[in-house]
Amino acid sequence: MLVQIYETSTPEEARALADLSVDHIGVLVGDGSFPREQSVGRAQRIFSAIPPSSKGVALVLSADIKHIEHIVSQLKPAIVHLGASTDLLGCSAVRQLKERLSPVTMMRSIPVIGEESIALAQSYDAVAEAGRRANRSARRDPQLGD
Using one digit for the tens of pLDDT, what is the confidence trace for 66-80? Predict the structure, then answer.
């Protein structure tokens, strides 16, 4: 089982979570547009406290591609979790980010709001599969089932 905890807000919390063997330690990062977002500077201090035994996850709620790229370039997280509305950050934008930010692993939140959610999730298959093929040849991650 993989354990992932989000909204870590201090380096001390990150170290404590790692001491508990948490696999993925997440930080909500942004410009303050959403409650509890950590600035990039503060997130850098939190990420620096995450040991190699855990993976740092940058949870980004922004749909601004340039802002997401800036966050990733500054933090260099193991994983970027895209949480913006699928209406604001669509499949083509995620594909573009994946190409630009490779080899960073990407996660995508997809809301479950009814039958239409299945088609929405399936629309990301090509993006995910292209990343899986590229990542398989570059590296394997037992935590992600690769």
Answer: 999 999 999 999 999
List the domain range (segments joined by +) for residue 35.
Answer: 4-144
CATH number, domain at 89? 3.20.20.70
- The 10s digit of each residue's pLDDT in 84-105 is 999 999 989 998 998 898 888 8
Distances (CA, A) of 91 to 6, 96, 104, 126: 24, 9, 17, 9
Identify any residues that bridge with 13 across adjacent strands, giving them in sequence order: none
Indicate the number of domains in the chain.
Answer: 1
| Maximal CA-CA distance, the chain | 42
The whole model's pTM is what?
A: 0.83
Long-range CB contacts for residues 122-127, cutoff 8 Å, separation at least 24: 123/91, 124/91, 124/94, 126/95, 127/91, 127/94, 127/95, 127/98
Q: Which residues pair with 29 in a beta bridge?
A: 38, 60
